[in-house]
Amino acid sequence: MPELRKDPVVGRWVIISTGRSRRPTNFAPATKGKSDGFCPFCPGNEDKTPPAVYTVKPPAGAGAAPAWNVRVVPNKFPALQIEGGLERRGEGLYDRMNGVGAHEVVIESPDHGMDLADLPVEHIHEVMLAYRERMIDLHKDKRLRYVLIFKNHGERAGATLEHTHSQLIATPIIPRFLQEELEGARRYYELKERCVFCDIVHQETADNDGRRVVAKNDRFVALEPFAPRFPFETWILPRRHDASYQDTADTGEYLDLAALLKDTLQRLNRALDRPPFNFVLHTAPVSDGDLEYYHWHLEIMPNLTRMAGFEMGSGFHINPTPPEDAAQYLREIAAEAANG
Amino acid sequence: MPELRKDPVVGRWVIISTGRSRRPTNFAPATKGKSDGFCPFCPGNEDKTPPAVYTVKPPAGAGAAPAWNVRVVPNKFPALQIEGGLERRGEGLYDRMNGVGAHEVVIESPDHGMDLADLPVEHIHEVMLAYRERMIDLHKDKRLRYVLIFKNHGERAGATLEHTHSQLIATPIIPRFLQEELEGARRYYELKERCVFCDIVHQETADNDGRRVVAKNDRFVALEPFAPRFPFETWILPRRHDASYQDTADTGEYLDLAALLKDTLQRLNRALDRPPFNFVLHTAPVSDGDLEYYHWHLEIMPNLTRMAGFEMGSGFHINPTPPEDAAQYLREIAAEAANG
Question: Angle CA(A268)–CA(A209)–CA(A245) in degrees, nearest 5?
């Protein structure tokens, strides 16, 4: 059984994933999942993953198309385990609980050679809806506090299989940075009676500014944040206030999101030669759906620099690329591609 | 001039290092500094770095030895700039100040082929004293709040030059994770009237335990923390309460530190085939020297897994190696080497 352990000084919870325990000799770089080998996410290998919890089928009459467009399955090597109670307990100074939670894989396409950015907008829309459906389902589990959706793209960004996929980890505690973001946003609201993310959207999209805006459409804006941790860090925010990803009144919103996500990832791909990247979906915790002070968004972090260990140790980020430069570059490269 | 910028939601300060600004095409892996090339840290190339701010000379009569054992120089490409005022200012929602601070390099040995772990204990002792001297000197600068000493070892851990060195960044703000650690330790003290790190040392070195202890000597203990973020994460703590690294009454303490640091790094090298790693020295902020609730220590983080981006985005760590297993392995491997 995996375990959740809490650092007694800073209160940071960590998953100790005993089921995946690795001896020193097991840390050689993973080589599985290359295109010349076997891929458990490809059509025909459905029996090599646990049974799907959600499937999007292609439209009827699609002929020789594969049996699914998007497929969500439990992770075969989960960091957390869905069965059991939390059994919170102490040990002297220390606190721990059972590593209860969900760990799922969203297989974004049946096509092994496609990246998320290359899929048609309508297909990315199906992926966005899959995130929503899994959130709604997992929010029913009273043991869970947060459903975290993220994507590791490229080996350097932590992907161990190259077939395009995202992941979902649902936890009985709120991940640290999300908790800090929720607290920061609440403090701002207490001070100003306004959502800080709404204020960011207004300031960044004001007529006399736009230096950090990468692209926008009716419902979303993609921008380089004022204080980015990483070069070309890019956030996509809904322009209208909404605390929770899954609670949108109008599901057409996800189509606009899919369009801007594709546009943004393609700009990053062109600017940075298809970089490894991570994205993390920031949304309200389970059962805190309708917060006035919080505003869901997607944070995309290209993996270009190597300061990981030190920065993970201090929280101190040195970013060699001003966001205004990055935004200008990303705006221009798209124009070049459109003209070319 | 580099700039410090604050995220308006979570309050995270970031260094935007405009002097090192990088365009998208500049993110190819660095290849400078390999042993077949020119090395600015080698003896004879002293004029290729800014003038030294601290030097340890070899004992008199050391014959053909090089002119120095340890040499501290300002970083030629500093992330922060030592001249100027902070000039704090706002821009709508946002806060920024000038990137004032120090960025120095501690060249740990004149020998290009030596790693820190391979140096004699007496030489590592000189490195530990160099840290102390630079801290004492920089603590006189009223603009600075924190002196952060760290080491990136190996390209994967962020080192761009292979000649063994550590770094020092002195900042006008306290790095985020250090601030959180200080606050956590203060809360614990308010509750218990005890230092949380002293409690950790006592619990871990109790006669009926020791499962997470790697090694110890009279004044220090090396242990795997209860809730480690990374496999084989190892902390070295003084067994006696001391808030500040540089304020030790007895300078003999640094010799014991050097001995246990060498022992610990060698165990990690043997267990993990000379892994890339980072270490970060955690100590009290400038002018907060004598805190009852804080306890300086060194956190060593081997760089073995690739979850960087996602974990940097969420603060959520999945560690596949329980610290009890790692500690046992590190204890045993040393015994094997001693017997062999």
Answer: 55
Helix (H) or strand (E) holding B168: strand B165-171
Sheet holding A13-16, edge to edge: A89-91, A94-98, A3-6, A13-16, B317-319
- Write the CB contacts of A135 (distance below 8 Å, at least 6 apart in sequence): A147, A149, A245, A246, A283
Using DSSP, state whether B235 is helix, strand or coil. Answer: strand
| DSSP states of A160-186 | SS-S-EEEEEEESS--HHHHHHHHHHH
Neighbours of A91 (CB within 10 A): 11
Model pTM? 0.92
Task: Please say whether the beta carbons of B226 and A7 come within 8 A.
Answer: yes
Q: Max CA-CA distance within chain A?
A: 66
- Cβ of A17 within 8 Å of Cβ of B271? The answer is no
Q: What separation, in Å, do the N-terminal and C-terminal C-alpha atoms of chain A show?
A: 55
- What are the tens digits of pLDDT across the range A136-166? 999 999 999 999 999 999 988 888 889 999 9
Give the residues across from B277 on adjacent strands. B153, B302
- Residue whose pair of structure tokens reads 């060498």 in the numeric block: B262
pLDDT in tens, B154-172: 988 888 889 999 999 999 9
Pick the range with the lowest mean pLDDT from A7-21, A178-192, B23-37, B248-262: B23-37
Cβ separation of A308 and B92 shorter than 8 Å? no
User: What's the token pair of residue A248?
Assistant: 């949108």
Residue B3 main-chain phi, psi, to 5 deg:
-130, 145
Amino acid at B181: E
Residue B171, phi then psi, degrees to nearest 5: -125, 155
**Has A153 been annotated as catalytic?**
no
Q: Which of B55, B45, B38 is nearest to B126 (CA)?
A: B55
- Beta-bridge mates of residue A5: A14, A96
Sign of the dihedral defined by the CA atoms of residues A47, A49, A53, A58, in that order: negative
Adjacent-strand bridge partners of A169:
A103, A148
The reply to whether residue B94 touches residue A227, judged by beta carbons under 8 angstroms, is yes
User: Which 3 state secondary structure label does DSSP give A235?
Assistant: strand
- The β-bridge relationship of strands A297-302 and A234-238 is antiparallel
Cβ <8 Å between B152 and A310 = yes
Nearest to B8 by CA among A200, A59, A167, A325: A200
Query: Annotated catalytic residue: which of A165, A282, A295, A297?
Result: A165
For residue A170, the chain B residue with the least C-alpha distance is B316
Q: Quick check: B103 pLDDT over 70? A: yes
Q: Classify strands A146-153 and A277-282 as parallel, antiparallel or unpaired.
A: antiparallel
3-state secondary structure of A317: strand
CB atoms within 10 A of CB B235: 24
In this structure, are residues A106 and A125 in contact, taking their beta carbons and an 8 Å threshold?
no
CB A294 within 8 A of CB A241: no
**Domain architecture of chain B: domains with CATH:** 3-18+33-339 (3.30.428.10)
Identify the CA nearest to A54 among candidates A100, A105, A103: A105
The nearest alpha carbon in chain B to A157 belongs to: B309
The residues facing B236 across adjacent strands are: B222, B298
Interface with B, mutate which of A291, A318, A324 (most B CBs under 10 A): A318
Please check the confidence at residue A312 and state whether its pLDDT lies above 90.
no
Which residue reads 């082929």 in tokens? B113
Using a 10 angstrom Cβ sphere, with 0-12 exposed, 13-18 middle and 19 or more buried, the burial of residue A210 is middle
CA-to-CA distance for B170 and B285, rounded, in angstroms?
Answer: 10
Summary mean pLDDT of chain B: 90
Nearest to A225 among B7, B169, B226 (CB): B7
pLDDT for A117 beyond 90: yes
Q: Which residue of A has its CA nearest to B156?
A: A306
Residues with Cβ within 8 Å of A250's Cβ and at least 6 positions away in sequence, in order, are none
